[in-house]
Write a structure and sequence with these properties.
Distance between the termini: 18 Å
Structural class: alpha/beta
Strand order of the largest sheet: 2-1-3-4
CATH topology of the largest domain: Rossmann fold
Strand content: 5-15%
Low-confidence stretches: 1-57, 308-312
Number of domains: 3
Helix content: 25-40%
Bound molecules: zinc ion
CATH class of the largest domain: Alpha Beta
Number of helices: 11
Largest sheet: 4 strands, parallel
């Protein structure tokens, strides 16, 4: 069953319309020089497409080779999705954590450290979520790090009782704030086309506006339905769209709640839905769902199994929109009347 939302197509990675307003910069000249040098010494890695287009168009149209692209390091998949939407092929994006890894309890490997040193710019949520990265980040030049949780303008849910919920990408406005900050900083790096970044950001802004509207409408009728979550990771999403959870079994940092809080949750009635995550103890949650005659849904806030648009070129919206869409449909399935 197809449940794609319809959003405006993402911009192609080469908006030729923008060429007119593009001012030839020294860095671009340098780039062309490097590319020409590469061709001279018989660099085997130049893609055929570049060779072909060089024949029919002026040399200035030649795209940057992979060697000169800035490397942007992201911590987790949702940030990779946001970065990919606005930066596209202007940079090389590398992700520190494997898609399915849970950031709360991750331990750093030697290869991660090597990867970390390669990034010109690091994008992470902050030490509360990716605790394993804290020591590495403090060693870096602060200007080369974007700490999403510290951005001014970040929206936080009011319903999260204990500490803050750092799964902040689940509010599309926060994703947009991260995207804007990224574009601002990456535009300062050499080897990127600012006009392309500006156009991609505009496109992402349009997409987020549509996304919020579509998701809001989708969830409108389900606002009164009670649910509990295993891990308090959906506060940003549920508050943005007016859903109100009836409790959680593990707090936003992944720790089990106490016996008293648990008893309070267990005494609740008319729970329609129990929301688990891929790493949850499904058998235990299934038991709870059965007790309430509620439905059990598994929703991944990291989007490891979100609909992979990379493999579906005909679906033209960002992987980030796909993540929000997947979370939305998980809630709809779980909360709907049956
Ligand atoms: Zn989490």
């Amino acid at each position: 069953m197809s449940r794609y939302i319809v959003v405006k197509p993402l911009l192609s990675s080469e908006p030729s319309r923008l060429q007119g307003e593009y001012v030839l910069s020294i860095s671009r000249l340098l780039l062309i020089g490097l590319l020409a040098l590469g061709l001279l010494i018989g660099l085997g890695s130049v893609p055929p497409a570049v060779m072909a287009s060089a024949g029919e168009e002026p040399a200035l149209e030649v795209k940057p080779t992979i060697e000169v692209k800035p490397v942007i390091l992201t911590s987790i998949k949702p940030l990779t999705m946001i970065a990919t939407a606005v930066l596209g092929d202007q940079v090389e994006i590398r992700q520190l954590l494997p898609d399915q890894e849970i950031p709360h309890h991750y331990a750093l490997r030697v290869s991660d450290r090597r990867l970390f040193d390669q990034g010109q710019l690091v994008l992470w949520i902050g030490p509360e979520l990716e605790t394993f990265m804290g020591a590495l980040v403090t060693e870096r030049e602060p200007r080369s790090v974007i700490t999403a949780a510290e951005l001014s303008g970040m929206v936080w849910p009011e319903t999260v009782e204990r500490g803050r919920d750092y799964h902040l990408w689940l509010n599309p406005d926060n994703a947009l704030l991260i995207a804007r900050t990224l574009v601002l900083q990456v535009s300062e790096l050499s080897g990127v086309n600012k006009a392309v970044l500006k156009a991609r950001l505009q496109n992402f802004e349009d997409e987020i506006a549509t996304l919020k509207q579509v998701v809001g409408e989708r969830l409108l009728a389900l606002k009164g339905n009670k649910f509990i979550v295993d891990h308090d990771a959906f506060g940003h999403f549920t508050e943005t769209f007016g859903l109100r959870g009836a409790g959680y079994l593990r707090d936003s940092s992944g720790l089990e709640i106490g016996a008293r809080a648990r008893a309070k949750i267990m005494s609740q009635e008319e729970i329609r839905c129990v929301i688990a995550e891929p790493e949850s103890r499904i058998d235990r949650l299934q038991g709870l769902a059965t007790k309430w005659h509620a439905k059990l849904a598994i929703i991944d806030p990291l989007g490891a199994k979100a609909i992979g648009f990379e493999d579906q070129p005909e679906v033209e919206f960002s992987a980030y929109a796909g993540l929000i869409n997947t979370v939305t449909e998980g809630f709809v399935d779980c909360l709907e009347f049956r």
